[in-house]
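Shall we go through a protein fold together, starting from nothing but its sequence? Label the sequence line and the structure token line clearly, so we can match residues to local backbone shapes. Would you write everything just below, so we can both look at the same thing?
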Amino acid sequence: MLDRFDREITYLRISVTDHCNVRCTYCMPAEGVPLKHHKDMLSFEDITEVTRAAVALGITKVRLTGGEPLVRRDIVTLVRMLAEIEGLEHLAMTTNGSLLHRYAVPLREAGLHSLNISVDTLDPERYRRITRVGDLAAALRGVDAAIAAGFPIKINMVVSDDTSDEEVRRMEAFCDQKGLRLQLINHYSLDGSKRDDYEFSRPPKCDSCNRIRLLADGTLKPCLHTNNEMKVDLEHAQASLMQTILAKPRRGAACTNRSMMEIGG
């Protein structure tokens, strides 16, 4: 389906939870945010029905995000349900990797196609500072488990003002050695004006943005950088999705009503 500016919307990002087992400085405020209870989140059946309606409108790619999607109980079951939707061409997940040693094989068997794994540095102490509580060794163990399970993998590296060129070169060598794709992401803030003059490929330029978002509580967002959002009508999911696509702005501005961990990037 085309939005009002003739962009073909083919990509749905689904935040399955706002809970996370790390506290990245660019994603969560130091004081934290109020977390949703399980009863306030969409059920797997609801997510599947919304996704089925989205595919009927031309969505071909779905990415599961969080928070950290692997902390959602029985996440493998959801992957299996989504993978069975006829017409869905690509089912992906973004994760911090710390639980992948446990889930990589079950996710692959359930039908997940690819993984993006967030690793912003290969320096253990800096990794701990960025994530506040994270363990680099656990994330790298997850990377190795995903490789062994046969996943195509991108490493997401957020490049901040204090990221050195040497850190980037070290990550490039790491990815080359392991046969992974490196995706450099400019650090950005939701509550600042959306910019398109980034050095790297992510976040995407507004003119080529092909995505909408479904949050864990059933909120649809037409754009990451906007306060505009609406609750999905589960009895008329396709109509809600169409409304969301048509509400997509030409350019992103700022989002002040949600944290990054609620939206999933």
About this structure: The chain has a mean pLDDT of 92. Residues 165-178 form the longest helix (14 residues). DSSP finds eight helices and nine strands in the chain.
